[in-house]
Amino acid sequence: MRQNSGIGVLDKAVGVLHAVAESPCGLAELCERTGLPRATAHRLAAGLEIHRLLARDGDGRWCPGPALVELSANVSDPLLGAAAAVLPRLREITGESVQLYRREGTARVCVAALEPPAGLRDTVPVGAHLPLTAGSGAKVLLAYADHRTQQSVLPNAKFTDRVLAEVRRRGWAQSAAERESGVASVAAPVRDHAGSVVAAVSVSGPIDRMGRRPGERWAADLVAAADALTRRL
């Protein structure tokens, strides 16, 4: 769930950008993804294309434009720099998919991800917005969120406040078939220099490989990776 700025046209334009970022799409699919009327979706996408925030691929579908890369080149994000140094090793150790999530309101956003070179994967694309109601990454981020956010999410969550207390006590979370059937995961909190939790690092994969208690196997590695990320911050 993305934040709403209250500026209607801006929120709609950002929604178009996110929809196209999922995968290239034409007008009909863009309308389906955004819920926007056909004329509105076309007008916004065409305007974003003029500003080079969107472009067209060989099939005429909208895709992310070169201006996004140009703008991002000037962004310095210590968390992503730390992830580039730590996540490859975590993937190598576990042989599973690894992700890094930030919390945005009552959602979590995947800001970095790596997939194993072969075998079944739990693919979470960078930029994906997932709810805080299920999954080990959600538990970690919600466990350290403010009380108001916790109370707004917990009524619809697949876990309780007692589970969040346990996450804070042991320093990691696990899940099995919560976010998606057949998928298990383990996550641990990443902190900034002041000790505040700013992200959750996660490993996920098929339950058949990770088991229904994946923390028994991978929690120590997740905590070590989270500590390595924290040190780099």
TrEMBL record:
UniProt keywords (A-Z) are: DNA-binding, Transcription, Transcription regulation
Stretches assigned to the HTH iclR-type domain:
7-66
- What PROSITE patterns would the database entry show? HTH_ICLR, ICLR_ED
Q: GO MF terms on file?
A: DNA binding; DNA-binding transcription factor activity
Q: Which InterPro entries match?
A: GAF-like_dom_sf, HTH_MetabolicPath_Reg, Tscrpt_reg_IclR_C, Tscrpt_reg_IclR_N, WH-like_DNA-bd_sf, WH_DNA-bd_sf
Asked if the keyword GTP-binding belongs to this entry, the reply reads: no
Report which superkingdom the organism of origin falls in: Bacteria
Please provide the Gene Ontology terms (biological process) for this protein. negative regulation of DNA-templated transcription
Domain IclR-ED: residue ranges: 67-233
- PANTHER family (UniProt xref): HELIX-TURN-HELIX TRANSCRIPTIONAL REGULATOR, ICLR FAMILY, TRANSCRIPTIONAL REGULATORY PROTEIN
Q: Can you say what this protein is called?
A: IclR family transcriptional regulator
